[in-house]
User: Which sequence fits this backbone?
């Protein structure tokens, strides 16, 4: 009999515990306790934005080494995401104001080559812009970027009769230290052309004086123009544009297989008494 009552008591205690747990589960929380609880932290997605790889001065033209990416949590509305398209859009652009290393490139930080007024912003007072058609060889195999300093080399081939082999081909540096301000079709604002045509028609646009522009115009009719890149893009007295270098390189200066007409023995042709003609080959 006592065992039966003990079993009843245990069942009653189990039911009481079960009901107590259910009541705690359905009971509404205290509003004061809910208000006092701190809100969960807000997690912002991290985005890689386009930044300056090193300090950039106002007026500099952007090259691939000037760009970097930096990861931040809350990018501003004017910040550019670091994508291939974003980098391509700002390459060759001019920096409007000084930027510290790691500073984000905002929408108004760069004047892009296709923006209206790009040439007016890039060219120094009194300077002109002239474009030279180049190929993979004459254009330094695509290694030239806006802001680089280049020399212009003129190569000529003479077909004049009687011209010696040593003097048929020549090369000379027409101009030195010219600043590159655009590559390819970047100055054609908003222009859309055939892809094959754009690949074939490559141009390099240089900053020159009016007199230098005339020299380049004449040089394009005389022979082939090629570009050589300076070791540094830093502006300075050694990088300023000069009229030309001294001296001409002839075919005989390049290959010893071609005799120099100045040192070879002339050929004398006698047409009669007292009539002799010297010819150099």
Assistant:
């Amino acid at each position: 009999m006592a065992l039966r009552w003990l079993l009843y008591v245990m069942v009653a205690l189990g039911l009481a515990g079960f009901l107590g747990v259910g009541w705690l589960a359905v009971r509404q929380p205290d509003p004061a306790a809910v208000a006092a609880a701190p809100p969960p932290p807000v997690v912002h997605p991290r985005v890689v934005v386009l930044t300056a790889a090193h300090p950039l001065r106002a007026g500099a033209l952007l090259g691939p080494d000037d760009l970097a990416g930096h990861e931040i949590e809350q990018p501003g509305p004017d910040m550019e995401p670091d994508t291939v398209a974003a980098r391509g859009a700002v390459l060759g652009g001019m920096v409007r104001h000084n930027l510290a290393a790691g500073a984000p490139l905002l929408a108004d930080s760069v004047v892009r080559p296709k923006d209206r007024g790009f040439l007016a912003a890039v060219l120094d007072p009194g300077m002109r812009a002239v474009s030279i058609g180049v190929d993979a060889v004459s254009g330094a195999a695509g290694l030239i970027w806006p802001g680089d300093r280049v020399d212009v080399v003129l190569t000529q081939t003479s077909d004049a009769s009687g011209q010696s082999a040593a003097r048929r081909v020549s090369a000379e540096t027409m101009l030195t230290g010219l600043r590159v301000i655009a590559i390819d079709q970047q100055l054609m604002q908003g222009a859309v052309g055939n892809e094959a045509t754009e690949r074939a028609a490559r141009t390099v646009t240089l900053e020159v004086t009016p007199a230098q522009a005339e020299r380049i115009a004449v040089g394009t009719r005389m022979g082939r123009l090629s570009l050589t890149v300076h070791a540094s893009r830093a502006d300075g007295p050694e990088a300023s544009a000069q009229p030309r270098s001294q001296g001409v390189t002839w075919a005989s200066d390049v290959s010893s297989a071609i005799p120099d007409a100045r040192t070879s023995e002339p050929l004398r042709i006698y047409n009669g008494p007292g009539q002799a003609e010297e010819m150099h080959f």
